[in-house]
Amino acid sequence: MTEPSRLLFVAGATGATGRNVVKQALERSVPLIAHVRPKSAETEPARSWPRKALVELARGDELAEAMKGSTTVLQLIGTMRKRFGSGDTYETSDIGTTRHLVEAAKRVGVDHLVLLSSVGAGRPVGAYLKAKAEAERLVRESGIAWTVVRPPAFEGEYHHPPAILRTLAKLPMLRGLRPIHLDQLAAVLLRVAERRAPLGAVLEGDSLWSEVAATGK
To answer: Most exposed residue of 46, 75, 153, 193, measured as fewest CB within 10 angstroms of its CB?
Structure first.
């Protein structure tokens, strides 16, 4: 019996991770809807994407309409402190967007939420990790099957992890902290979304790197 096709709704498609997810998905003809804020619709590479949802996440009815037919929501939105000057906050960008996406997903029958979180969110210290932990809570308590991905530091594009991190990650107890390339992270997110597995799992450390190995990246 043929498995029904998955349709991915990629929130945060224009971010560093999102762009890599969309790129790999399009290369492999994985069905997806790339969420793009209206003001970014004409930027590259969003302009050339074949299927986009041009909607502000706070507009619940419009978001639910754009999400119809999707089986999976990938929540890849987050912010950094350096963006606070432009109006972003952890509350709006990490927690608020997750809340909007969960509410819309429940309305339209999405059966899998994939959340991009961060290493350390399990024992959060500081505003950034506490926001990630709250986003995780919203996903876990949504009533929808979920998978949380907690990567360590990124590398690729404009991400350059400190050299000391590579040195520390050579220690057996800290090997899970070695930087992950954006291509590897995107491949894992796609694999999880396409397979709808593992469910109810937090991929961090060894479990995350096992998924990376399974992608062949």
So the answer is: 153
| pLDDT tens column, 160-208 | 556 555 555 555 655 666 789 999 999 999 999 999 999 999 999 999 9
Angle at 77 between CA 75 and CA 79, to 5 degrees: 155
Q: Quick one: pLDDT band at residue 1, thresholds 50, 70, 90?
A: very low
Show Cβ contacts of residue 90 under 8 Å, excluding neighbours closer than 6 positions. Answer: 79, 127, 128, 130, 131
Q: How far is CA 20 from the centre of its chain?
A: 11
Residue of 38, 4, 6, 32 whose CA lies nearest to 19: 32
- The predicted model scores a pTM of 0.89
CB atoms within 10 A of CB 44: 10
